[in-house]
Amino acid sequence: MADRDLRDCFLNTLHGKAVDKVPVLSVTQTGTVELMKKSGAAWPEAHFDAEKMADLALSAHTIAGLEAVRYPFCLTVLSEALGCRVNPGR
After folding, report:
1. What is the extent of the structural domain holding 40?
2. Tell me, what's the pLDDT at 70?
3. The total number of structural domains that make up the chain
């Protein structure tokens, strides 16, 4: 399915129109271990390197076929925007 068709399908779904395939997305997380391996972009580096973040986020569409892309990968960005220090862990 072409990207334009995916976009139209997604928008038609939002507008309550009939579609031949229900769009699939993850609103909370797409950075799986398998996608990290296949995209060559893994955590924790993908949280701090814009190119790796984009590679991993786009892999949800290009590799897994999801219609939507999710980034950043967690909600700590909200805490950081408010001035909190976040320990990225490992």
Report:
1. 28-81
2. 76
3. 1
